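#onboarding

Welcome to the new folks! Below is a worked example of what a typical request in this channel looks like: someone posts a single protein sequence, and someone else replies with the predicted structure as tokens. Don't worry about understanding the tokens yet, we'll cover that in week two.

Example request:
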Amino acid sequence: MRAPADNETPIDEPQRERALGNVAYEAMLDLLVSGEIHPGDPIQERALAARLGLSRTPLREALHRLEGERLLERGANNRLFVRQVTVQEILEALHVRRLLEPEAAARAAGQIPQAELGALRARVQQLLEHNEPENPEHQVLDADLHGLICKYCENEMLAGIIAEVRRKTRMFSLKRLNRRLAPVCQEHLDMIGALERGDSAEAAARTAEHIDNIRASILERLARW
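Example response:
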């Protein structure tokens, strides 16, 4: 292992393990949210460790954390599986988001750098022009906008709770609602506009409307099943 230079702060082993555990957690979360690992799939530690290029120690730490967040669960044979998030959980999560995210948007209005919002606006408009509902940029952009609001809402606890609850809705098997591409893009543009203008009341209203529409779309889709 390379010795630290004179101007570097040595990293102790526990700190290094925590860092690797966080890397493993984020990598596993990406696999779950993207659908690369499906509800009901068994967790195979050796294969996942090789896939992520990590040792099994930080991976196990990440799996334990995800089990605590109820994204993974143990079967009768004590093996870990990807847990199926229920519709009831999704609706409850959306209810919590409806309570918290408009407040975060109101607090973030006028605080987010115009350049960052402008870049988001350009990405939304490009997504609209291409009209590709299955384009993964749709999900990435949604996460980036809501993440930016949380970053600038100036309340770390509020941001943390929102991030945790949003994971539930992102894990929902109906997350790809194809008919919602254009409406979601317009809702995002409305939110961005209010944030750019620093209009707290409008930012809160547009965010609340966005979440209400997500809920309505899920219920409409379920009614057609």
